[in-house]
Design goal:
Helix content: 40-55%
Radius of gyration: 21 Å
Shape: globular
Structural class: alpha/beta
Strand content: 5-15%
Largest sheet: 8 strands, parallel
Number of strands: 10
Strand order of the largest sheet: 1-2-3-4-6-8-9-10
Amino acid sequence: MPDIAAVKAALAAQRIETPSWGYGNSGTRFKVFAQPGVPRDPYEKLDDAAEVHARTGVAPKVSLHIPWDRVDDYAALGAYAKERGLELGAINSNTFQEDDYRLGSVCHPDPKVRRKAVGHLLECVDIMDATGSTDLKLWFADGTNYPGQDDITARQDRLAECLAEVYARLGDEQRLLLEYKFFEPAFYTTDVPDWGTAYAHCLRLGPKARVVVDTGHHAPGTNIEFIVAFLLREGKLGGFDFNSRFYADDDLMVGSSDPFQLFRIMHEVVGNGGLDPATNVAFMLDQCHNIEAKVPAVIRSVMNVQEATAKALLVDTDALAAAQRSGDVLAANAVLMDAYDTDVRPLLRELREEQGLDPDPVAATLRSGRLERVAAERVGGAQAGWGA
């Protein structure tokens, strides 16, 4: 049976990275609903992230998105993060919101557009240098909408060439994390549509290139936990973008649509050493809340990851291995289900109390009056977010 003290230690050591854009206004291509108290600049986003970390104790890192989080002095932004008990995490590039990228960015047929895109990626590495970030996260909206629109193989050649230039610019402790998405916004071909394509490019680039698994970027029925297990086995899992989906890339709170899937993913993470700091897997959230309050929603996602991790840590691995060796299908499945059916909320409440935290992080932030206070303080200026 699992050692509860060891389970608590693993949960206390867990680190979950929150996204700066998760604190801003966001929504669908139809509408973005503005909310009171939404941050107006990256500094106020860090203030909100600090609230999440203060309530959960496991969210000290914040991902930035450029140009959404562009500032004049990134060293100063990094220093402010440290003052708030945080550090800046992955730097996310953006090559999908300018007219020049209508036919692609790093895969565009025009070399001048590719040069512009690579220049932005190199700018992101400069920002990494200034902030102390170690991860450059790349997602490309590149693809085609119609058969014959462009040469599929040539686009892969352009992608490889651009990635190689950016990879060569990385420092010794920096990594390139390549994300994939099987469709949208391109509907005929996507240039990085799946984990195999991302893996092939990362393998060619070298040891500092790894794959990011966004849990919303898969076709219905995809066995994401297999992908996670395979990439961990190969030493090529760089991190996650945790969210939930019903139809496509819905970017809902992680664990909200299929908590059993999240448990199955974390079971493979735990079983393949993914919680070991030496594997350097980044557990990042990627969510864009359209109707729910930002800070409580991010806290809820952090708690959902904690709960799935706790259940994965409670799997009786000896009993599971014995059932697997004997070929007892039902017994093996029952071991997993016993762990999944365990109510781990009392364990996590107890752990938080031992750490001097409120056992209910969402209730604590609601009771604090902070949401009302920042809504009154953050009046005027332009709220962070993207329009629709």
